[in-house]
UniProtKB/TrEMBL annotation, chain A:
<protein>
    <recommendedName>
        <fullName>Ig-like domain-containing protein</fullName>
    </recommendedName>
</protein>
<dbReference type="InterPro" id="IPR006311">
    <property type="entry name" value="TAT_signal"/>
</dbReference>
From TrEMBL, chain B:
<protein>
    <submittedName>
        <fullName>4-cresol dehydrogenase</fullName>
    </submittedName>
</protein>
<dbReference type="InterPro" id="IPR016166">
    <property type="entry name" value="FAD-bd_PCMH"/>
</dbReference>
<keyword id="KW-0285">Flavoprotein</keyword>
<dbReference type="Pfam" id="PF02913">
    <property type="entry name" value="FAD-oxidase_C"/>
</dbReference>
<keyword id="KW-0560">Oxidoreductase</keyword>
<dbReference type="InterPro" id="IPR004113">
    <property type="entry name" value="FAD-bd_oxidored_4_C"/>
</dbReference>
<dbReference type="InterPro" id="IPR016167">
    <property type="entry name" value="FAD-bd_PCMH_sub1"/>
</dbReference>
<dbReference type="InterPro" id="IPR016170">
    <property type="entry name" value="Cytok_DH_C_sf"/>
</dbReference>
<keyword id="KW-0274">FAD</keyword>
Length: 189, 519
C-alpha cells in the first residue's frame, strides 16, 4: 500500500475556499456528463432568491432546496442530496454547507465571494468581471449565468476582482455572500 | 517542522504506520489527502493560514479498533488528536493543537446505546449529535428533552467533555454527565462510578460510588479516550413560559445580576438564564454595515438607534419557567417583582418575526437549531473566537468585567459582543471577538486582544472555563497558585497514564514529558 505522504500537498488552511484552490476542475473533467443540479436558496436573503430563480428559469435546476433562517435545513437536506449543489448564500450558510459536504466526501468546484462595502459590491470570482461590475443590484442573475458557464461550459480560471457602481444594499441582505458549488456522490473520471 | 508529518517521524516510517492503521480500520477510513483533511481545520482560526493542520486522520468503528490503533500510535510514538462529532468553533474547531498530529476521528461511533425514560438519561457514543439524539427521542415517542448547545450539530459527548453549556434547566452539561467508559493510552478500558460494578443497572443514574470520582479527570484533558458517556435528560414539563426582559442602560447589568442571583440560587428560575448585549442580540436580525460602515467600535448614538429600531435593550435577559401551571404562576410573580423593578425594564412574552427570540425559545425548550451561526453575518467573513472568563454571579463583578473587557475591545478597534450566562452559582461571561477572517490585520488584532484579556482577567482574579487551542498554554499558566501546583499535578498524571505522550499533547496546556520544554 502506498500512502505517498512525502509528495502530497497538504492544505494551507485558512478560509473556506482553501480546499477549492488547486483542484483544477475544468470542463474536460465532467462538463460533458448530464449532471443533476440542485440549487440551495436561502429564503431570507434576496440575492439568494434571485440567483436560484435564474437557475430555475434557465432550466438548469433539477431541484431547489430552500433553507430558512434557522439554517437547520442545511443539515437535513444536504446529507441526502446528490449531483452538483450550487448556492449563493450568506457566509455562515456557506461554511455549514462546506463542513457537511466535505465530510461526506463532496468535491468543491468553485467558491467566490461578494462583499458590500462603501456602497459597492466587490466580487471575487473567476472570469466575467465586466458583466458583474455593470450589473449593480441585479448581479445575482449575472452570477447565476456565469456560474453555469463555469460549471457546464467554458471556464476561465484566472482569479479576478471587480467592483460594481454605487448601489444600495437591500435591508434583508447580509452584505457578505458566498457563491459556491460542490459535486456530491458522482463518480469521478 | 513539516506540516505534513508528525514531529520527529520520517515519511517512510509514517507510511508504514498508516499501513498498519489501515489494516485495522480499513484503508477507506485512513485519510491523508488535502480534501478530506480540510474537514479538520478551524474554519474561523485567528492564526495565520497553515497552522494547526493534521498530517492524517484515522476513523475507528469500535472499541477494539481503538485499542489496536493505540498499539500502533504507541509503537511509533505518533501524537493523535481525538475528535468526536461537534465542531468546537470559537475554541479552535476540530483542529489539532499542533500541526502534524493524526486526527483520531470517532464520529463513526455514533450509536445511542440506551434511552431510559424512567430515570431520564441516555448512554451515547462520541459521534452522537444533538440533532441525532433529539430526532431519536421524538422517533421513539420519548418525553425527554435534550439540552443542546447553541449550534445543534454539536456532539453530546464532546460538548459535555469541554464543559459546554445549554439553556434548559439541564444546561450545565458537565454536571449532567453521569458515567463514562474510557480507553487509557495503553488500551485498558475503564468504566467510572457504578459502571465498575459488573452488571450494574445504575451506571447512568448516580455519580456516587466507592472511591475517587474520576469522571472530571477525563474532561478538558488528555488522560484517556471517552467512548461511552451517560447524559441526563430533562422530562418534558407540563408547561413552559419563556420570557425576555429588555434593559435600557449598560449599567443595568449590576442590578440584573443582583436581582437574578436569589432567583437562581433558589431555583425559581431553573434554567441557564442569559443576559445578552445589544449587538449580539441584534446580529441575528441585521448587520453592522446597515448601520455603520466605518472602522472601530460603533458610536453610542448608533447603538441607541439600533436598540430603538429593533425594540431591544442594551441588555436583553432571557430565561424560562418550567413545571405545573400553578407553580409557574406562583414563581412568575417572584420573577416579575424582582426583574421588573429595574427602571425602564420591558417584558416580552412573545416577539413576532424575531429570529433571535425564536432560536432562544427553541433552545430553552431543548430544540436544537443552527440559527446562532447567523450572527456571524454581523461583520461578514465569519471569524470569531470566544473569551470566556467565569466567576460568581455578582452584579458589581459582572459590571466590572464588562467595563474592563469592553474598554479593551474598543482599544483594539472591536465592538463588545457578549453575553453573561448564569448557572446555579456561576456566571459564564462569553465575549465573542468577531473578525473578517479574510482581513489579516483584523485577525491579528483579535489574537492580540485575546492574549491581553487573558492576562488582565487573571490579574483581576478571573480564570477562563474553556478556551481556544492557541491560548491553552497561556491560560494554563494563569493557574499559578503555589507555583503552578495544579498543572504540575496534571503533568504527573499525564506522565504515568500516557508515558509515550500520544494522547492529544498540549490539550489544555497539558504536555507530555518529551514536549514539555517546547510549550
Amino acid at each position: 500500500m502506498a500512502w505517498d505522504v512525502s509528495r502530497r500537498t497538504v492544505m494551507s488552511g485558512g478560509a473556506v475556499g482553501a480546499a477549492v484552490v488547486g483542484l483544477g476542475i475544468g470542463r474536460s473533467a465532467w462538463a460533458k456528463r448530464p449532471i443533476k443540479t440542485i440549487v440551495i436558496e436561502e429564503a431570507e436573503v434576496p440575492e439568494s432568491r434571485l440567483f436560484a430563480e435564474t437557475f430555475v428559469n434557465s432550466g438548469r435546476a433539477a431541484k431547489i432546496i430552500r433553507i430558512d433562517r434557522s439554517l437547520n435545513g442545511l443539515l437535513h437536506e444536504l446529507a441526502i442530496a446528490e449531483g452538483v449543489l450550487v448556492g449563493l448564500t450568506s457566509d455562515p450558510a456557506a461554511m455549514i454547507a462546506e463542513q457537511i459536504l466535505v465530510a461526506d466526501g463532496a468535491r468543491p468546484l468553485l467558491q467566490w465571494t461578494h462583499h458590500y462595502r462603501k456602497m459597492r459590491w466587490e466580487h471575487r470570482t473567476e472570469g466575467a468581471p465586466a458583466l458583474l461590475a455593470r450589473a449593480s443590484t441585479g448581479w445575482p442573475t449575472v452570477l447565476a449565468h456565469h456560474m453555469q458557464d463555469a460549471l457546464f461550459g467554458d471556464r476561465q480560471t484566472a482569479e479576478l476582482r471587480c467592483e460594481s457602481g454605487h448601489c444600495s444594499l437591500d435591508g434583508k441582505s447580509p452584505g457578505m455572500l458566498v457563491s459556491w458549488a460542490f459535486e456530491v456522490g458522482v463518480q469521478q473520471s | 517542522m513539516s506540516t505534513g508529518m508528525p514531529q520527529g517521524v520520517d515519511a517512510a516510517t509514517f507510511s508504514k504506520a498508516l499501513d498498519e492503521l489501515a489494516a485495522i480500520v480499513g484503508k477507506e477510513w485512513v485519510f491523508v489527502d488535502e480534501l478530506p483533511l480540510s474537514a479538520y481545520r478551524d474554519a474561523y482560526s485567528p492564526l495565520a493560514d497553515g497552522e494547526m493542520l493534521p498530517s492524517a486522520a484515522v476513523a475507528p468503528a469500535n472499541m477494539e479498533q481503538i485499542q489496536q490503533a493505540l498499539n500502533v500510535f504507541n509503537a511509533y510514538k505518533l501524537p493523535i488528536w481525538t475528535f468526536g462529532n461537534g465542531r468546537n468553533f470559537a475554541y479552535g474547531g476540530p483542529a489539532p493543537r499542533q500541526s502534524g498530529y493524526v486526527m483520531f476521528d470517532l464520529k463513526r461511533m455514533n450509536r445511542i446505546l440506551e434511552v431510559n425514560e424512567k430515570y431520564g438519561y441516555a448512554l451515547v457514543e462520541p459521534g452522537v449529535s444533538y440533532f441525532q439524539l433529539h430526532r431519536h427521542l421524538r422517533h421513539i415517542g420519548s418525553k425527554l428533552w435534550v439540552d443542546p448547545a447553541a449550534p445543534g450539530w454539536g456532539g453530546v459527548m464532546g460538548n459535555a467533555l469541554e464543559h459546554g453549556a445549554g439553556y434548559t434547566p439541564y444546561g450545565d452539561h458537565f454536571v449532567m454527565q453521569c458515567g463514562m467508559e474510557v480507553v487509557l493510552a495503553d488500551g485498558q478500558v475503564v468504566r467510572t462510578g457504578q459502571g465498575a460494578i459488573e452488571g450494574s443497572q445504575h451506571w447512568q443514574s448516580t455519580k456516587h460510588a466507592a472511591g475517587p470520582h474520576f469522571d472530571g479527570m477525563f474532561t478538558q484533558s488528555n488522560f484517556g479516550i471517552v467512548t461511552k458517556m451517560g447524559i441526563w435528560l430533562m422530562p418534558e414539563p407540563p408547561a413552559y413560559k419563556p420570557f425576555m426582559i429588555t434593559y435600557e442602560r449598560e449599567g443595568d447589568l449590576a442590578a440584573i445580576f443582583d436581582a437574578v442571583l436569589p432567583l437562581k440560587v433558589n431555583q425559581v428560575i431553573p434554567n441557564a438564564a442569559v443576559a445578552v448585549d445589544l449587538l449580539w442580540e441584534v446580529s441575528a436580525k441585521t448587520t453592522r454595515r446597515h448601520y455603520f460602515d466605518g472602522k472601530g467600535p460603533i458610536p453610542d448614538s448608533i447603538r441607541k438607534k439600533i436598540a430603538s429600531d429593533h425594540g431591544l435593550g442594551m441588555w436583553n435577559f432571557y430565561a424560562a419557567l418550567y413545571g405545573p401551571p400553578p407553580i409557574i404562576e406562583n414563581n412568575w410573580k417572584l420573577v416579575e417583582e424582582a426583574m421588573m423593578s429595574i427602571p425602564g425594564a420591558k417584558l416580552h412574552l412573545d416577539r413576532e418575526n424575531d429570529p433571535a427570540w425564536d432560536y432562544r425559545v427553541q433552545l430553552m425548550r431543548g430544540e436544537p437549531n443552527m440559527t446562532e451561526f447567523s450572527i456571524m453575518n454581523w461583520i461578514g467573513g465569519g471569524g470569531h473566537i470566544n473569551f470566556s472568563p467565569i466567576s460568581a454571579p455578582d452584579g458589581k463583578e459582572a459590571l466590572s468585567q464588562y467595563n474592563l473587557i469592553k474598554q479593551r475591545c474598543h482599544d483594539f478597534g472591536f465592538d463588545y459582543i457578549g453575553e453573561f450566562l448564569v448557572g446555579w452559582r456561576d456566571m459564564h461571561h462569553i465575549l465573542m471577538i468577531m473578525y473578517d477572517r479574510a482581513d489579516e490585520g483584523m485577525r491579528k488584532s483579535a489574537y492580540d486582544l485575546f492574549g491581553k484579556l487573558v492576562d488582565e482577567a487573571a490579574s483581576a482574579g478571573f480564570g477562563e472555563y474553556r478556551t481556544h487551542l492557541a491560548f491553552m498554554d497561556q491560560i494554563a499558566k494563569t493557574y499559578k497558585h503555589n507555583d503552578g501546583a495544579l498543572w504540575d499535578l496534571h503533568h504527573r498524571l499525564k506522565d504515568v497514564l500516557d508515558p509515550n505522550g500520544i494522547l492529544s499533547p498540549g490539550k489544555q496546556g497539558i504536555w507530555p514529558q518529551a514536549m514539555r520544554n517546547q510549550a
